[in-house]
């Protein structure tokens, strides 16, 4: 073999000088790279023969652990390169050079995986027409702990590659067979770009498509089915929605299909299971994905992984599944078919993991579980299983993860569990386990790193004081003991320096957070101490690396503790904090959600709050803040989605210079002392859904100009001094006052006058549509599984002032009471068929009650009292079977009261002296008794009442009644894909 050419050796030596060589067992020393020697014999270097003799054709430095500030241009002088592997070397956030790769025209294999490059992928890579394999992925490792993902990685996820147009990356390499882009940001790619990138005409030879954790929010393209060579499709951990194409079942070479953690729906194509090459299917955590297991699934004798748990699969689980002896990982679900697990599963002696979910799985943990001695993971979650944990579980000696949560298990935790010395994760929360658990018995497990005993009927105590037999807890990183009857901080927490997650919520811990906590918990990123009796934080700031903090429902006093720059979630709802430090905002650079409501905070809101440029949700309601509202909250923080200031003593005018790009979705300024007019610049907030200015001192006309807000659904102006006419009467052109999406309109207790326009009510289109989802919450949600807050509003409901803290989409309300309105009740109100509350009391309305109101079949509360209405009560109102509150008092109504259970309250008719019939004592004479309208089968149904208990880290509010909808927000930061219990850091 001829020696390498001098220019090749010189380029390699320059490349070597750009690296810092890490000399450890796993790294490469590049010791053979010496001047004057044949570079074709150097470590990782291969040269060509024939025409390419003496030229470097392959450079493999993969997993060398080399470090550089940038990729040296000397690399691009190796123009004969066919293979280049720089994986697992570290370029510390530098960009892939925009110029240079286009020179490597012979390149067939390029691997830059886990190299810590950042920024846009250069177009030059997409012009390498001979590429067969391209790997720009960042490998990541997920540890699944009862719906939480934690990472064992240590570097910043800011080192992310971006491909704004994936078509430009794959349009030239027509021979591409493998594409690996995990953790590359593809969020800017829409359906057209995504589907245009992968088809039989663009990537006809593609065999492996691996795009996990890429922020994709698109459907699966049918065009993928045209690539007949596809053998592996990996799209897990994205936002991919819609159905799985039926045509995937026709891909002849399909071996691996991994779609876990997406938003897929529809039926899983059963034909996929008939593919003889299929080795792995993983569609877990697609909760709307339905389907059933085919009876003949046992015909596949090479299937090693079948994971359909945490889906909406239903129907029987075939016993033939026990004939697939090749299975290593099995996850099953059955949502609506009550059955016990087939005993044939116990014959799968090679199983490494078994995951079972779904209410359709009933019975107890089967005895044959003990036969699966190779299991390392056993999970029964969200299922209908009950009974005790069998003591025979102690025979599964290889078990490293035990997850038995959200089922109906009872009894005591068997002592045999504590003899499983390889256990790393124990998650047995949200069941009905009884008895006392001594933590000292668990600390003897040498590899235990995560423990969750929350939400059972357990009492958790420290146990033996002599800790000489305890193993090291240095690598213990997750402890969750919510609602475990704990009265003190566990002593073992003194010896957990690497703990990352601590949840002690819902206990009876009193006093102060221990002084040793700050020094010990240096790696803590998530802390939940909510719903205890703690009164003293013990220090003036939070731990250094903390990201998520929940201190709600305690007795904390004094100033709010200072968050840290890393903190993005801080909930101190319902405490006794008295002040917000003036420099509080200086530590809010990453803050996304801040809830300090229901405290005793006083004084002015510090201007430093304006430094919270990433803020999404801010709730300072029910405090004693005074002064004016910092204008920056509406004018400068473009990220803010929800701003809640109700129940304070704020005054002055609202900020008037709201800019284009406003992201506000909900504004609640009720119960303050704001004055002046509403700022017309609110029209810049195109996503606004909720606006509540109730109970202030606003003096203005009806805001017809707000009709340009395309998503506005709740408008509350009650208890101010609004004047003039309502609706289209206030505007010369009716089209300028249409509120097509409005569902709650509250104008009560103002000075509105004039008549109610018949045509205007016909324009309330959203009030004419029944919603099929009776329980869809109207809420703010930080991510699809993230912390959730319900919007609240106060309206008069069934004669009482109620706070609606969780607003059902089905709740449709009109309240124009306590104004100076006159004229007739518009008949067009009868077209608002989903209306549940109608309050027009305390006005000067005249004429008769329209019979069209009888069409409001969802109506639960009707108040027309204290007007000047005349005539008879329409017989049609007797058909309102859901009506539970009716008030027609103090009008001039005459005639017989309709015969119906809804009309049986005597107080409903006070002040109508000419009315007669039951329930009044005055009998009717010389009148024909109207036909009875008693429903034969219908029963009185009241509005749905909820007690909302917060999700995740104890976030939530005690509520009275409820009204709700969901808003999905992505926080583009370290936690962009997963919230705190689904957190991914990359390696």
UniProtKB/TrEMBL annotation:
Reaction catalysed by this enzyme: L-seryl-[protein] + ATP = O-phospho-L-seryl-[protein] + ADP + H(+); L-threonyl-[protein] + ATP = O-phospho-L-threonyl-[protein] + ADP + H(+)
Which Pfam family, any one, appears in the UniProt record? LRR_1
Note the topology in the membrane: Single-pass type I membrane protein
**What are the recorded GO MF terms, alphabetically?**
protein serine/threonine kinase activity
Please state every residue range assigned to the domain named Disease resistance R13L4/SHOC-2-like LRR. 320-504
Q: Which domain of life is it from?
A: Eukaryota
Subcellular location(s) per record: Cell membrane
A single Gene Ontology CC annotation of this entry is: plasma membrane
Q: Does the keyword Glycoprotein apply?
A: yes
> What enzyme class is recorded for this protein?
transferase
Transmembrane segments annotated in the record for this chain: 943-967
Occurrences of domain Leucine-rich repeat-containing N-terminal plant-type (ranges)? 6-47
The UniProt record lists the keyword Ubl conjugation: no
Known EC number: 2.7.11.1
Give the record's keywords alphabetically.
Cell membrane, Glycoprotein, Kinase, Leucine-rich repeat, Membrane, Repeat, Serine/threonine-protein kinase, Signal, Transferase, Transmembrane, Transmembrane helix
InterPro entries named in the record: Leu-rich_rpt, Leu-rich_rpt_typical-subtyp, LRR_dom_sf, LRR_N_plant-typ, LRR_R13L4/SHOC2-like, RLP23-like
* Protein family membership: Belongs to the RLP family.
Protein name stated in the entry? non-specific serine/threonine protein kinase
Query: From which source organism is this entry?
Result: Oryza nivara
Q: What is the lineage of its organism?
A: Eukaryota, Viridiplantae, Streptophyta, Embryophyta, Tracheophyta
